[in-house]
Amino acid sequence: MEVKNVKGTKDLYGEEVTNFNYIEGVMSSVSSLFGFKEMRPPVLEHSEVFVRGVGEGSDVVRKEMYTFLDKGERSLTLRPEFTAGIMRLIVQNKLYATEPLPIKAFYMGPVFRYERPQLGRYRQFNQFGVECVGGSSLYHDVEVILLGYCILNTLGLENVTLKINTLGDDESRNNYRQALKDFFKDKIEGMCEDCKSRYEINPLRILDCKVPEDQEIVKDAPKMMNYLSLESKQRFDQVLGQLEMLNIPFEVDDNLVRGLDYYSETVFEFHYTSKKGVNYGAIGAGGHYDKLIAEFGGPELPGVGFSFGIERVASILKDDELNIPDENVMISILPMKAEYNSQAAQFALSLRLNGYSAEVNYDGGKVASMIKRAVRIGAKVALIIGEDEVKNGTIVVKNLESGEQQNVELNKLNEALDAILQKDECDDPNCGCHEHEDDECCHEHHHHDGECCHHQNKDK
Ligand code: HAM
Predict the structure, then answer these.
(1) Residue 290: pLDDT band by 50, 70, 90 thresholds?
(2) By C-alpha distance, which of 51, 60, 56, 67 is closest to 200?
(3) Would you say the CB of residue 262 lies under 6 angstroms from ligand 1?
(4) Is 252 in contact with 165 (CB distance < 8 Å)?
(5) Ligand 1 pocket test: which of 107, 270, 307, 308 has the largest number of ligand atoms within 8 Å of its C-beta?
């Protein structure tokens, strides 16, 4: 019997892993620039963490969790998101008392939701996110949104729409919930089954319904803005004002309510349409919360965060043909006889110690097929060790892109390699990269308005 992967999961290999590494690298380094540090909560948590954290009214908890009893009869859940687990971690380890506030964490890894698999929707997918916990200023909301925006910008995503709304404080939401109940009271019978249960559990979620007939009804529903307390209204206006100051474009969307129960005040989503017009929906989302830390037994500390869906971001980079650095080995060493393998191994080691990535073709074969393989693995240079070379203390350096080759004395090898391997890095004249002068450069991937990329994965 052929064993296949589980429905809704995805094998990642080759270029896709390179893309993931690149995306996670950019996301973490930009987050570090904002003062965030990585946390790694476990994938497995007691189910209670999400029931309490994400909320019993959410679809995630009601329908989508991978929950099971372990051999000790404990109810465990594969995390369907990170935020609740991070709150549990902060409270259990009393970080709110031992660490300077606010605590700023970023995280990444797989999450699991039993959803209907479709384009951009998996049952195991990966998130990268941040949480800023314990800062009372509304500027933390703005800073977190700015961080999300900078990450997408650094990745070169140009068609991002930031949708933003406020869910107000408890008082505002209670009043609004009642207004929605009154409005939908005589309409709910004709609406979808999901809306009927949302009406009972959390009428705000009706605004998020995707059924076209229901959306028609939703259009005339009361607006949150009219039920906001004065404090919540002023807070939201200040957040929007600050986003304007920072030149972050946004759209206020008063139907944006988010699917998880913990939010209050600011909520937001980053939406994306690729250059070819493919609508990816929300590629990342988040918002402010007031009660999560207290929910886990800690003090009443507010927080704000977001998570990106890495699969969606990776598809966009591919779709929009954005440059991604390659992780291919640079040099392939080709010993023409097995007896040169040992020498080749030593060569490879000294090249690696000099910062070049190198591999050896120990399995021999015809020179043409060895070169063909070197090209296929993405190497830029082949170093050929043949009988004459061993005798004369030289090596053949073959540029696999141009096809040119030359016989080089071993003490001139580094020079020859430098000439080939660093030639076409960062040739964008607008690039603000400062490393041109000393001939070392970043991979050039995403230059915006003459600003340079992240100096990641430097060749050499
Ligand atoms: P979320 O909106 O449930 O928020 O998920 C965040 C992102 O994960 C979505 O915008 C989407 O890109 C991606 N995503 C969600 N479901 C799937 C799926 N089935 N397949 C692929 N990608 C998916 C949260 O998880 C919150 N914890 C965000 C947050 C952090 N709020 C405050 N802090």
Answers:
(1) very high
(2) 56
(3) no
(4) yes
(5) 307
In the three-class reduction of DSSP (H, G, I as helix; E, B as strand; rest coil), residue 403 is classed as coil
H/E run at residue 92: helix 83-92
Ligand 1 atom index nearest CA of 127:
8
- CB contact set of 74 (below 8 Å; sequence gap of 6+): 46
pLDDT in tens, 12-54: 999 999 999 999 999 999 999 999 999 999 999 999 999 999 9
- Grade residue 442 by pLDDT with cuts at 50, 70 and 90: very low
Cβ 64 under 6 angstroms from ligand 1: no
Q: Determine which residue's CA is closest to atom 9 belonging to ligand 1.
A: 284
What is the mean pLDDT of the segment spanning 248-265?
93
pLDDT digit string (tens) for 197-252? Answer: 889 888 998 998 889 999 999 999 999 999 999 999 999 999 999 999 999 999 99
Please compute Rg for the chain using Cα positions.
27
Residue 302's pLDDT is what? 98
Is 127 touching ligand 1 by the criterion CB < 6 Å? Answer: yes
**Among 127, 130, 80, which residue's Cα sits nearest to residue 108?**
127
Residue 190 identity:
G
- Residue 325 amino acid letter: P
Task: Report pTM.
Answer: 0.88
If you average pLDDT over residues 357-373, what whole number do you get? Answer: 96
68 residue type, one letter? F
The token duo for 343 is: 């020498």
Hey, whose CA ends up nearest to atom 16 of ligand 1? 121
- Confirm or reject: Cβ of 265 under 6 Å from ligand 1: no
What are the structure tokens assigned to 184, written together? Answer: 């939908």
The finding on whether 41 has its CB within 6 A of some atom of ligand 1 is: no
Amino acid at 87: M
**pLDDT score recorded for residue 133:** 98
Taking each helix axis from N to C end, the angle separating 170-184 and 193-201, rounded to the nearest 10 degrees, works out to 140
Q: Cα(198) to centroid of ligand 1, in Å? A: 20
Residue 83 alpha carbon, nearest atom of ligand 1:
27
The pLDDT score that the predictor gives to residue 149 is 97
Calpha distance 323→326 (Å, rounded): 9
Backbone CA torsion sign across 128, 166, 235, 91 = negative
CA distance 78 to 45: 7
